[in-house]
Specification:
- The protein has one domain: Rossmann fold, CATH 3.40.50.2300.
- 41% of the residues lie in helices and 17% in strands.
- It has 6 helices and 5 strands, in the order βαβαβαβαβαα.
- The N and C termini lie close together (10 Å).
Length: 142
């Protein structure tokens, strides 16, 4: 099952995303309330897809995506935002964003987008997992 990391500063949105995406068959292997925490979670969990909000207090979604893409270049990144119209597709692509989904379209649309993005990837295109082992007490989360 694909493993997802959610990076959003809004706790109720993170909860709803986790709730729906897990019921859609995904594993939410980590959550973060901001870019810096999201980068640390990505290092720790090595997700298959990263979901990032655009507007967060310490780092924007595009700034976070740029760091994440350098760190995990084959991992798809989806920006899930209310401010889709403020995201220039070309700029987003240069920052490492693979797809932008408007929050007004809902979490079911996000789940469809994750599925579509993963279906475009062949197994050899999926991110290579880190050689760092995950401690036994953390494996249950993922």
């Amino acid at each position: 099952m694909p493993r997802l990391l959610i990076v959003d500063d809004n706790a109720p949105i993170r909860y709803l995303m986790r709730f729906y995406l897990e019921r859609a068959g995904y594993i939410v292997c980590g959550e973060a309330k901001g870019g810096v925490e999201g980068i640390e979670e990505a290092k720790r969990t090595q997700p298959d897809v990263i979901l990032v909000d655009l507007t967060m207090p310490e780092m924007t979604g595009t700034e976070t995506a740029a760091v994440l893409k350098r760190m995990l270049p084959k991992t798809p990144i989806i920006v899930f935002t209310l401010h889709e119209d403020s995201v220039n597709a070309e700029l987003a692509a240069t920052m490492g964003v693979d797809l932008v989904v408007n929050k007004m379209e809902g979490i079911p649309k996000l789940a469809e987008s994750v599925k579509a993005l993963l279906s475009r990837s062949t197994p050899s295109d999926l991110p290579a997992k880190s050689e760092v082992s995950i401690p036994e007490n953390k494996k249950a989360e993922c």
